[in-house]
Design goal:
Blueprint lengths: L1 H24 L6 H17 L9 H25 L3 H4 E3 L10 H13 L7 E3 L2 H47 L2 H4 L5 H24 L15 H16 L4 H24 L7 H11 L6
Antiparallel strand pairs: 1-2
Helix pairs in contact: 1-2, 1-3, 2-3, 3-5, 3-6, 6-8, 6-9, 8-9, 8-10, 9-10, 9-11, 10-11
Amino acid sequence: MNWFVTAAGAGIVLFAVRDMFHTIWHPSGQGTLSRLVFRMVWRGSRLLKRRAEQSSVVGPVALLSVILTWAIAIVAGWTLVYWPHMTEAFSFGSTLDPAQRSDFLDSLYLSLVTVATLGYGDIVPQQPWLRLTSPVQALIGFALLTAAVSWVMQIYPALARRRALAIRLTLLERAGAAQLLPAADSSSSATLLHSLTGELAQVRVDLTQYAETYYFRETDAAASLPAKLPYAGELARAGQESAPAELRLAGTVLAEAVQDYAHLLAQQFPLAGDSTDDVLQNYATDHGYTRP
């Protein structure tokens, strides 16, 4: 029974480490636990406010919740590893009162101290396998801290690229670019559409790698890609309906990029739709935006 509890604790730790790897460093960025926490926070926020009133704090709160979930899982797992062996496999400092000790609380305390790399030394493992595994927990704790910092540093540049594309689409919409595109110089118009295609392709890569960026919402519609992406489709159609061949090609490539982005949304998130326009509309609605 003791070794069953220890094995269960080790399994929890391995699951948490695996989830960290798949969320932060795997090319698809799809950790099972992190995805579940993000969806729970996203849906739970709707119980407090309507979609149109959602705050931009939902994403950061979900991000913090995932990091805390990883930390809790690692601490709990190592607590279960230590607990069955606390009495006979550890030595205790003279300052600890034997009458006030609890094997479970001592295990939890040791797990917290070790994962935080504090190393007070009042509870020390004596058995060889524990002397080898305890430093592993300290390394995992350090990895958790490093992963959390690197995750934040990776996500926010991806969000900045998404917002920059949304703002650019907003400015083009205000300028009436879709109406002016066919009459403008075909070379410059094609360059414009190709540049938008490149930016959208980068945002698509960001969403694949950091699927959690989906749950970050901008309060300003002008900086929200869910609100402004349908205009990229309008620009693509304007290019496709133009006479110059190079502009039609640029419009077709942009339309394919928009369709590919919508396909990714439909695959990874509950955004069903019969067409690309339907998926994009559901994308906007899920973030609290509607287009006239």
